[in-house]
Amino acid sequence: MTYLIVDDEPLSHDVILNYAKEFDFLELAHQCYNAIDAIEWLERNNVDLIFLDINMPKITGISMLKLLKEKPEVIISSAYEEYAVESFDLDVADYLLKPYSMDRFYSAIQRVKKKRLPPEKEEEKTEAFFIKGDKKHHQLRFDGIDYVEGYGQYCKIHYQGEVILTLERLSNIEEALPLNDFLRVHKSYIAAIPKIQAISGNMIELANTKIPIGQSYRKSVKEVLRLK
């Protein structure tokens, strides 16, 4: 995110430069010491953010904002608080009252960052996986699995009324299943949480069957399902 400093005080430039160097995404584009030079520079260049003083000779920061045809994000940096209301009417991102701390500077930068930088893309949620069984690879949707039953070196996946036999271990299948939707309830069983209809004693009731809750899994089952 590129920024421009517009301030007639060299010390103010130094403060901003010193604070801004702590942020990897901030990059200095230019420095101006009056509004006229800044307006001329902006006619030829683009910038994401302006640190703008208000009380400057010839043209004030407020007047400069009104003259700009296209405004980047603006953080006012001023020793005069009486211009705050007018500044926010011009849609500035924040108003830093000199002298300000690094904490206050950080808060202002975060406001701009949320507005200017695109949100991080969420990873697309995987809805299915492939499993080898019966000499072919089956693509199984997670929401079609009722439960998985382990038998030592192989497993039975109960899927949409069918049983798919695979040589995968139960622990390997457990790693492939989404944690929020499946729960290991026994050393030999994994249940699909949305498919659980009821729990009676140590048994989990699904649509067409019941599976046991192992003694060592009771506590985790209660915690995940929020059973009292």
Secondary structure layout:
Elements: E1 2-6, H1 10-20, E2 27-32, H2 35-44, E3 49-52, H3 61-67, E4 73-78, H4 84-89, E5 94-97, H5 102-116, E6 128-133, E7 136-141, E8 145-151, E9 154-159, E10 162-166, H6 170-176, E11 182-186, E12 189-192, E13 198-200, E14 203-205, E15 210-212, H7 218-225
In short:
By secondary structure, the chain is an alpha/beta fold. It has helices at residues 10-20, 35-44, 61-67, 84-89, 102-116, 170-176, 218-225, and strands spanning 2-6, 27-32, 49-52, 73-78, 94-97, 128-133, 136-141, 145-151, 154-159, 162-166, 182-186, 189-192, 198-200, 203-205, 210-212.
For this entry, give a set of tags:
228 residues; alpha/beta; Rossmann fold; OB fold (Dihydrolipoamide Acetyltransferase, E2P); 15 strands
Can you count the beta strands? Answer: 15
Strand content bin? 25-35%
Q: What's the N-to-C terminus distance?
A: 51 Å
The CATH homologous superfamily of the largest domain is named Response regulator
The domain tally reads: 2
Based on the structure, what is the oligomeric state of the protein chains? Answer: single chain
Topology-level CATH name of the largest domain: Rossmann fold
What structural class should be given to the helix and strand makeup? Answer: alpha/beta
Largest sheet: 5 strands, parallel
CATH architecture of the largest domain: 3-Layer(aba) Sandwich
Radius of gyration (Å):
31 Å
Low-pLDDT runs of 5+ residues are none
